[in-house]
Write a structure and sequence with these properties.
This protein has five helices and 15 strands. With about 280 residues, it is an alpha+beta fold. The protein folds into two domains: about 210 residues, BirA Bifunctional Protein, domain 2 (2-Layer Sandwich), CATH 3.30.930; about 40 residues, SH3 type barrels (Roll), CATH 2.30.30. The strands form three sheets. It has an eight-stranded mixed β-sheet with strand order 1-4-5-6-10-9-8-7, sandwiched between helices. A five-stranded antiparallel β-sheet has the order 14-13-12-11-15. The protein has a two-stranded antiparallel sheet with strand order 2-3. Helix 2 links the parallel strand 4 and strand 5. The structure holds biotin.
Length: about 280
């Protein structure tokens, strides 16, 4: 394991493996120190940790939160052995071919609606003008999936469980990957950034703006992100099908991040993250 941050004791995570002594582990080099320098002024107590292997960075941070470890941290895994996606799906990735990490921090927005959309906006804007957003949690490129976001929270504190620790998990394809078993064909970052782009390069681009976006969301909610999401909304004005089979046309997001879909029964505001939406096959 490698860490960047103020001096502190560290221990190997229960799902992790042996410690490494520098920020260079495996095939990739992660600029942990640069990220820490960029983020820590606005997030006191922040650390960056690079693990050669863990079951899932989300699972690890949720474990820590339940054990009372609530400090802000960016946890990066070179390899996940049990990566998780939305709707109970898995998230498979190979070392070096993808960037897998989670940002964990205490968060207290007045309204949590739209957090994953705000995260997507930040990532897309940091990565490339061509990156689009697919409600609610995906980054797409030319109708293929470039990245996914999985947000989970753990409650803590007084009055009884009133505060929450947010774990914002992000997986981004960096290099070409096999489409076998994927419900959506994959895209990868090297299609639009230089071929030598590494997971470390991508993390350096996105980390500080991501923290800034999450803090803006905590203060202002989804409102400052709505127009920015809609500008990159890959479903906008397209025929879509919901997971219950309902067909309609997508019309962007509401002020709270709901997906507006015009169906035979009128305009519906889809809020449930358990609903999956796909462009209709012509
Ligand atoms: C999805 O598209 O369904 C969300 C995928 C989220 C994957 C990332 S990889 C880092 C973090 N750890 C996990 O186990 N999942 C998220």
């Amino acid at each position: 394991m490698s860490t960047a941050g103020p001096p502190q004791g560290t221990k190997a995570p229960s799902g992790g493996s042996a410690a490494a002594s520098a920020a260079s582990v495996g095939a990739s080099t992660f600029p942990a120190e640069s990220i820490w320098e960029a983020v820590s002024p606005r997030l006191p107590g922040f650390t960056v940790e690079i693990l050669p292997q863990v079951d899932s960075t989300n699972t690890e941070l949720m474990r820590r939160a339940r054990a009372g470890r609530l400090e802000p941290v960016l946890l990066v895994a070179e390899q996940q052995t049990a990566g998780r996606g939305r709707l109970g799906r898995g998230w498979a990735s190979q070392t070096g071919d993808s960037l897998t990490f989670s940002l964990g921090l205490p968060l207290a927005p007045a309204d949590w609606s739209g957090l994953s959309l705000a995260v997507g906006v930040s990532l897309a804007e940091s990565l490339h003008p061509r990156v689009q957003l697919k409600w609610p949690n995906d980054l797409w490129l030319d109708d293929r999936k470039l990245a996914g976001i999985l947000i989970e929270t753990a409650s803590f504190g007084e009055p009884r469980e009133a505060q929450r620790y947010a774990v914002i998990g992000i997986g981004i394809n960096i290099a070409e990957r096999d489409a076998t078993g994927l419900s959506t064909p994959p895209a990868w970052l090297r299609e639009i950034l230089p071929q030598a782009t590494t997971a470390g390069d991508a993390l350096l681009r996105i980390a500080a703006p991501l923290v800034q976006a999450v803090q803006a969301f905590e203060t202002f909610g989804f409102a400052p992100f709505q127009a920015r999401f809609n500008a990159r909304d890959t479903l906008r004005d397209r025929p879509v099908v919901l997971s219950d089979g309902t067909a309609g046309t997508a019309h962007g997001t509401s002020e709270t991040g709901a997906l507006l879909v015009h169906t035979a029964r009128g305009m519906s505001a889809i809020t449930s993250s358990e609903v999956s939406v796909r462009p209709a096959v012509p």
